[in-house]
Amino acid sequence: MLRxxxxxxxxxxxxxxxxxxxxxxxxxxxxxxxxxxAQPRDHSLPNPSWSKEMMENYxxxxxxxxxxxxxxxxxxxxxxxxxxxSFKFVPGGGLLSKIIQSEARxxxxxxxDQGAGFEYVLFINKTKDQCVGIFQAGPQLEGPPGKVxxxxxxxxxxxVTGTHSSYICGPCMTANLNINYRxxxxxxxxxxxxxxxxxxxxxxxFLSCRVTSWDGSKIHVESKALFLSIxxxxxxxx
Length: 238
Ligand SMILES: CCCCCCCC/C=C\CCCCCCCC(=O)SCCNC(=O)CCNC(=O)[C@H](O)C(C)(C)COP(=O)(O)OP(=O)(O)OC[C@H]1O[C@@H](n2cnc3c(N)ncnc32)[C@H](O)[C@@H]1OP(=O)(O)O
Known about the structure:
It holds the Pfam family 4HBT. By secondary structure, the protein is α+β, with helices and mostly antiparallel strands.
């Protein structure tokens, strides 16, 4: 689904930049040969900066994931890979990310030092209409002394609900994000960010999202989000 969404967006971009891809069943097959790009790094895989709590929750969801190659939907959860740019989800995306705004980086993946900024992994459960993010907030996300900046928390919520919504309805943008901060998050701690689909209404997707401590014992944030489906024209001003 995501490959298809990004694929259709890329088809428009490629056309604009004269690459003329031909879409074939959820993938892009460019008519010109693209130079090979190194496999992009999947930031959603564990690294040495991940805490015991982060690893414990990662293992919990990962153990309930689909086995690679199994029929889609046979497992409860799917781990979502994460790259420095969304383009990199699709074949040829590595090259496009070098052509279009080459300096651009996904906001949550722009701090290179492992553990310094957002460390996270997302899992989606299509049967339950849920998406879960396991986040570890690094020292460069400070707001009040020793605590996570509220904007950084909003970013976590936008990331999980935005990804969730993209999987449900394809390309979309945040129209409204309403956040109630209940208790501060300590820097370095692991939190769970859980998005649930409330309803769909035409182009609108309504979601609820909760941020809790890693073991679910403490509520940090409760929020509601509205995403609106958009066309490639709206994203790239074509
Ligand atoms: C990109 C390709 C896909 C990639 C997929 C990869 C997935 C995974 C990869 C990586 C994960 C990353 C995940 C991160 C996610 C981050 C997401 C963001 O942060 S997005 C940036 C912040 N958002 C903006 O900048 C929007 C700015 N606003 C706009 O552009 C427009 O206002 C927009 C598109 C939201 C709506 O504009 P209109 O012209 O299309 O629609 P109108 O006609 O205004 O509204 C349509 C309906 O929606 C209601 N509506 C619009 N805005 C509303 C609002 N704020 N609150 C309530 N209702 C609203 C209206 O009242 C109307 O309702 P009635 O049809 O009459 O019932």
